[in-house]
Design a protein that fits this description.
This protein is of the alpha+beta class. It folds into two domains: about 160 residues, no CATH class; about 190 residues, 2-Layer Sandwich (Heat Shock Protein 90). Helix content is about 60%, strand content about 10%. It has eleven helices and seven strands. The chain has a five-stranded mixed beta sheet, with helices on one face. Helix 3 crosses helix 6. The longest helix has about 50 residues. The protein is rod-shaped, with a radius of gyration of 36 Å.
Length: about 375
């Protein structure tokens, strides 16, 4: 249905005009037939059809020639002059061709039998046609406005999706290089575990490549991604790293933007554990409560570590996260809170599940 109304292709455009012309002729034929109590339906149809040709000609000349070439180019004087001349010319031609068929049928009191080329007929007919053409112009530009507004919203939506995907693509693959190095060492020391690591790595990469292109994913899938990621990272840290992943509430039917939880956890590894030569720890919590999702990632922060360039990079990454959430959610649909103390760094993200708080649909 949208294509029939808005598509600019020749087939749809032609069909649209033919249907509109046919509807107009049939509608006015019915009105005239009932109004005049005529028993000759075919004659009434002929009257309406003949007049419709002139009315539509005036409308098309105005809409597709006079308005674009004169009115929209600020040539208002020329537009008014030509508009009146075209109306008068078509009125005169119509009266010659139809032999006052229109007025003799629906308004016989306005007909003077002494002559068809009467100035009064031309003026009245031009007035009537001008009124109809004005209605056509309003309908045409309302349709064009709706089409333009629809295209604007579509482009705006596509732009938001493109921005979101660009921000998603800012993924730091440092863990991949670390995993590959650890995988090589593991293949030498414990070949039996190699297959398991490869399988988990494949799962993580598959998710990043495929699932991350979606607007939303199931929260349970995101949690599973993080669990696989943690197991891969533990190859590097061994037993000295303590990771806790707590899950609360019903998570099965909830959805989140892809890579949201992953980014929080990855940041904890990169800017927390990787800089801690002692016994680092990471605490991750995923909770659903009262139509909201709460995600948090907290990591240890050794006292010996002071602010470095890594802190500016960390702030930049959370700025990207906020920009992405701005695209996906309405301002009241999410919250980000960062806590930083001497001994730990924590990020809390709150997401509302109600669709009214989202600007992107789930697909």
């Amino acid at each position: 249905m949208n294509k029939l109304f808005f598509d600019t292709g020749i087939l749809y455009r032609g069909s649209r005009h033919i249907l509109f012309f046919s509807f107009t002729v049939l509608c006015f034929t019915g009105i005239l037939f009932v109004q005049n109590g005529s028993n000759n339906l075919l004659h009434t149809f002929g009257v309406t059809f003949s007049n419709a040709i002139f009315f539509f000609s005036y409308a098309y000349i105005t809409i597709f020639l006079l308005i674009p070439e004169f009115l929209l180019k600020q040539k208002i004087g020329w537009f008014l002059l030509l508009f009146v001349l075209v109306g008068v010319g078509l009125s005169a031609l119509k009266l010659v061709v139809s032999d006052v068929i229109f007025y003799s049928t629906i308004s016989p009191e306005n007909v003077e039998r002494t002559g068809a080329m009467n100035l009064r007929f031309i003026v009245v007919n031009t007035k009537d046609m001008t009124f109809i053409v004005a209605l056509f112009c309003i309908a045409k530009y309302v349709k064009d406005y709706l089409f333009a507004e629809n295209m604007r919203k579509k482009l705006e939506r596509q732009n938001k999706e493109a921005q979101s995907k660009l921000l998603q693509s800012q993924f730091d693959p440092h863990f991949m290089f670390n995993t590959i190095n650890n995988l090589y060492a593991l293949s030498l020391l414990n070949p039996l575990k190699t297959n398991e690591v490869i399988k988990r790595m494949k799962t993580v990469l598959s998710y990043i490549i495929e699932e991350s292109q979606k607007s939303f994913v199931r929260l349970t899938d995101e949690v599973e991604l993080v669990e696989n990621y943690i197991l891969l990272e533990k190859l590097r840290y061994g037993k000295r790293l303590k990771v806790e992943l707590a899950k609360h509430g019903k998570l099965d039917e909830l959805i989140v933007p892809p890579m949201i939880l992953f980014l929080l956890v990855e940041n904890s590894f990169k800017h927390g554990s990787s800089l801690d030569a002692g016994t680092p720890w990471i605490k991750i919590e995923v909770k659903s409560e009262a139509g909201k999702i709460f995600l948090s990632a907290e990591n240890s922060k050794p006292k010996s570590i002071v602010k470095t360039d890594g802190d500016s990079e960390k702030r930049k990454r959370f700025k990207s996260l906020k920009e992405r959430l701005d695209i996906i959610y309405h301002p009241s649909g999410y919250k980000i809170k960062v806590e930083e103390k001497d001994t730990y760094f924590k990020v809390n993200v709150e997401l509302k599940q109600d669709i009214e708080y989202r600007q992107t649909t789930y697909r």
